[in-house]
From TrEMBL, chain A:
It is an enzyme of class 1 (oxidoreductase). It comes from the Eukaryota. The lineage of its organism: Eukaryota, Viridiplantae, Streptophyta, Embryophyta, Tracheophyta. One of its GO terms (biological process) is response to nutrient. GO terms for molecular function: branched-chain 2-oxo acid dehydrogenase activity. The gene is BnaC03g70580D. Pfam families: Transket_pyr (PF02779), Transketolase_C (PF02780). Residues 37-212 form the Transketolase-like pyrimidine-binding domain. Its cofactor is thiamine diphosphate. InterPro entries: THDP-binding (IPR029061), Transketo_C/PFOR_II (IPR009014), Transketolase-like_Pyr-bd (IPR005475), Transketolase_C (IPR033248). Heterotetramer of alpha and beta chains. This is 3-methyl-2-oxobutanoate dehydrogenase (2-methylpropanoyl-transferring). It is found in: Mitochondrion matrix. The keyword Ribonucleoprotein does not apply. It comes from Brassica napus (Rape). One of its GO terms (cellular component) is branched-chain alpha-ketoacid dehydrogenase complex.
TrEMBL record, chain B:
The keyword Oxidoreductase applies. Residues 104-404 form the Dehydrogenase E1 component domain. It comes from the Eukaryota. PANTHER family: 2-OXOISOVALERATE DEHYDROGENASE SUBUNIT ALPHA 2, MITOCHONDRIAL, 2-OXOISOVALERATE DEHYDROGENASE SUBUNIT ALPHA, MITOCHONDRIAL. Keywords: Oxidoreductase. CDD domains: TPP_E1_PDC_ADC_BCADC (cd02000). It comes from Brassica napus (Rape). This is Dehydrogenase E1 component domain-containing protein.
Length: 362, 444
């Protein structure tokens, strides 16, 4: 899968493809200057812009001072000073709690959790404090300036504690937003939107793509709207929904299906909470089939929410059951990672994606 | 130790000897070799590790788990309210002293009347601050209105001091449309951005207590960066000091050099859990040093001592950009809340003793009266005035209608997203179909 993805990711640098796919972001076309950047550099650029445009914004977390273990915060401390960009003690509940306090005083706090697998000590702060800050105070107070960034997802050798996709836990919390970009260009725009959104946002970055994904990214300050899904590949036979790194896998499945004459519509959800039901609903009403794919374990994964909602809204238009091609219900394994992952062939073999004339149960 | 050394090293060795690091030095210089030096070390040699220099010791010695003596407790007034000789304290003007005492009385009466209202079924819940009036009022009096407060839930006196009216307290308790919290939380979950008092967070009686502590540190950092003449102040109990957030917050405050006051109301009980089941340290004050934080233990039932401690702590925090830990020793005279009957786990005698012999109100009243600033007449005037105001506040709060149903859906986000707008429609349809399922006092 690694070679597969890296081959595909290099393709991301090329404009468009024969099948009208828009894996590359379509924002801000025109004559702006662009630069070929990988994901961590795009994130870095967004952070530079965020700190530059708001003097009351801060970036902090473990090891953020020297540039961060994934290099996302390179150059920030040197440019903006150690009072605004700094290391914190090794304590996620403290990092997020501190960030909430800063945000509650009207600052923007862009907090880094080193790896999403370590976010759980901060879960109480996120659920019981950040998410309810505005509501419980009757809008006298809010911590909307808080953005929590965390690298998530499989990386090929990460095992239990460097590969998790915990988005489903957070999608169950009214009051926060959950955003996951698929590519460098998307990441920069979505991160700037998240930082500037007046609500606390949890922003998961697909760490697999930090170096692997390269794309033309506009150098200027731009934002991509939250809670708006994007149809990145148009089709008529089946709708596929995903987010983050998994979209590259699904794109491959779409290409394979194309060869068998199946026209696939691929949607990047981008924001999981609150999610854009209307775009997905309109697509499924057109195609009659839905396949959802995510790395996180299938049981209780966010795919279940999408499936249930679409069933409610599109039942009479569905020609097949909704498929979910997801990670398995095991802790994320090391040696067994290739078996665990929702690969393009698993997607292709699922009942939804096989030829509409065949009806076999996977 | 026998060493063969060069001339330069020999000079260094002499320096070491002169600095008394070396006990004796015998220099042997046979003609056929360079100087030999016999060195016996006297005191431990200091070595570098990441984090700085430490002295070595050849003795295996464990630091004791506790000091022989407990950290002494700062007080100004004795149990009878007489000022102790040689007591150091920050002077308090007549105006401040009278307001302090009056507010302590007001707090006590407010608590009494709300508690009774709950017992009568007019309020769903209440938690009193009996026995802790001095902590509440004196700390508030020593702060400035710009200091931001992150309360737990037994500090409504701070709001009272700052001007929150009895009506405003009643509105929140009754969850009516005038409640600033828009009826979303249980009684005593007050908040006021106007008075710099962040909304109470804890779901009382369960394990969620000290989440606001790390928030206070972030807020303090913000005040420092904005160069404000203000600090953040946060309160918690003896039980709260066991939560992870307490440790996270203290460590962060020290490292970030944040001007924040951590005020611990050590009242001996976390619901039914006595401090002996809560920690094995000498209370909470000794934990400050572990994090590099300056700390003090105060008699929480001594209004003057509380005032002085908080006053000094605040100055240090702001001037030196550092956190301060204040452990106020006190006693929770009331039950944990109206959902608790504390006679089930402690003796009524114990409660009564603290209520009488160590009462913060009577001690401070004695001192205020000794200055000629208070009298029995003033006392009875105040009490009847408060009682009247309280009963009126409750009457009005009870009559005021509840917040509109749309407030269930607002403020989850800055703007309600589509899913909430849809859910509101569904709820309204459900109400139309089965109105009897829903309370009739919530306007639609």
């Amino acid at each position: 899968m690694a070679s597969l993805l890296s081959r595909f990711c290099r393709k991301l640098a090329l404009p468009g493809s024969a099948h009208g796919s828009r894996m590359t972001s379509t924002t801000a076309c025109g004559s702006e200057t662009v630069k070929s950047l990988n994901l961590y550099s795009a994130i870095n650029q967004a952070l530079h812009i965020a700190l530059e445009t708001d003097p009351r914004s801060y970036v902090f977390g473990e090891d953020v001072g020297f540039g961060g273990v994934f290099r996302c915060t390179t150059g920030l401390a040197e440019r903006f000073g150690k009072n605004r960009v700094f290391n914190t003690p090794l304590c996620e509940q403290g990092i997020v709690g501190f960030g909430i306090g800063l945000a509650a005083m009207g600052n923007r706090a862009v907090v880094e959790i080193q790896v999403a697998d370590y976010i759980y000590p901060a879960f109480d702060q996120i659920v019981n404090e950040a998410a309810k800050f505005r509501y419980r105070s009757g809008n006298q107070f809010n911590c909307g300036g808080l953005t929590i960034r965390a690298p998530y997802g499989a990386v090929g050798h990460g095992g239990h504690y460097h590969s998790q996709s915990p988005e489903a836990f957070f999608c169950h919390v009214p009051g926060i937003k959950v955003v996951i970009p698929r590519s460098p260009r998307e990441a920069k725009g979505l991160l700037l939107s998240s930082i500037r959104d007046p609500n606390p946002v949890v922003f998961f970055e697909p760490k697999w793509l930090y170096r692997q994904a390269v794309e033309e990214v506009p150098e200027h300050d731009y934002m991509i709207p939250l809670s708006q899904a994007e149809i990145i590949r148009e089709g008529s036979d089946i709708t596929l929904v995903g987010w983050g790194a998994q979209l590259t896998v699904m794109e491959q499945a779409c290409l394979d299906a194309e060869k068998e004459g199946i026209s696939c519509e691929l949607i990047d959800l981008k924001t999981l909470l609150p999610w854009d039901k209307e775009t997905v609903e309109a697509s499924v009403k057109k195609t009659g089939r839905l396949l959802i794919s995510h790395e996180a374990p299938i049981t209780g994964g966010f795919g279940a929410e999408i499936s249930a909602t679409i069933l409610e809204r599109c039942f009479l238009k569905l020609e097949a059951p909704v498929s979910r091609v997801c990670g398995l219900d095991t802790p994320f394994p090391l040696v067994f990672e290739p078996f665990y992952m929702p690969t393009k062939n698993k997607a292709s073999s699922s009942s939804s994606l096989s030829s509409p004339s065949k009806t076999h149960i996977f | 130790m026998r060493l063969a050394i060069s001339a330069t090293t020999y000079r260094m060795v002499l320096l070491l000897r002169d600095s008394h690091q070396i006990q004796s030095l015998v220099i042997v210089t046979p003609w056929w070799i360079r100087s030999q030096v016999l060195v016996h070390t006297k005191t431990p040699i200091v070595m570098d590790f990441p984090g700085g220099k430490v002295a070595f010791t050849p003795e295996i010695h464990f630091i004791s788990e506790s000091n022989e003596e407990r950290v002494p407790c700062y007080r100004v007034l004795d149990d009878n309210g007489q000022q102790l000789t040689n007591s150091q304290f920050v002077p308090v003007s007549k105006e401040i002293a009278v307001k302090m005492y009056s507010d302590m009385v007001t707090l006590q009466m407010m608590d009494n009347i709300f508690y009774e209202a709950q017992r009568q079924g007019r309020l769903s819940f209440y938690a009193t601050a009996f026995g802790e009036e001095a902590i509440n009022i004196a700390s508030a009096a020593a702060l400035s209105p710009d200091d931001v407060i992150f309360p737990q839930y037994r500090e409504p006196g701070v709001l009272l001091w700052r001007g929150f009216t009895l009506q405003e307290f009643a509105n929140q308790c009754f969850g009516n449309k005038s409640d600033y919290g828009k009826g979303r939380q249980m009684p005593v979950h007050y908040g006021s951005n106007k008075l710099n008092y962040f909304t109470v967070s804890a779901t009382i009686a369960y394990s969620l207590l000290t989440q606001l502590l790390p928030n206070a540190v972030g807020a303090a950092y913000s005040l420092k960066m904005d160069e404000k003449d203000a600090c953040a102040v946060t309160f918690f109990g003896d039980g709260g000091s066991s939560e992870g957030d307490f440790h996270a917050a203290l460590n962060f405050a020290a490292v970030m050099e944040a001007p924040v006051l951590f005020i611990c109301r050590n009242n001996g009980w976390a619901i039914s859990t006595p401090t002996s089941d809560q920690f094995r340290s000498d209370g909470v004050v000794v934990k400050g040093r572990a994090y590099g934080i300056r700390s003090i233990r105060v008699d929480g039932n001594d209004a003057l001592a509380m005032y002085s401690a908080v006053h000094e702590a605040r100055e240090m925090a702001i001037r030196e950009h550092r956190p301060i830990l204040i452990e106020a020793l006190t006693y929770r005279v009331g039950h944990h809340s109206t959902s608790d009957d504390s006679t089930r786990y402690r003796s009524a005698d114990e409660i009564e003793w603290w209520n009488k012999a160590r009462n913060p109100l009577s001690r401070f009243r004695t001192w205020v009266e000794s200055n000629g600033w208070w009298s029995d007449e003033a006392e009875s005037d105040l009490r009847s005035k408060i009682k009247k105001e309280m009963l009126e506040a409750i009457r009005v709060a009870e009559k005021t209608e509840k917040p509109n149903l749309n407030h269930m859906f607002s403020d989850v986000y800055d703007v309600p997203p589509l899913n909430l707008r849809e859910q509101e429609l569904l709820v309204r349809q459900a109400i139309k179909s089965h109105p009897q399922d829903y309370p009739s006092d919530v306007p639609l």
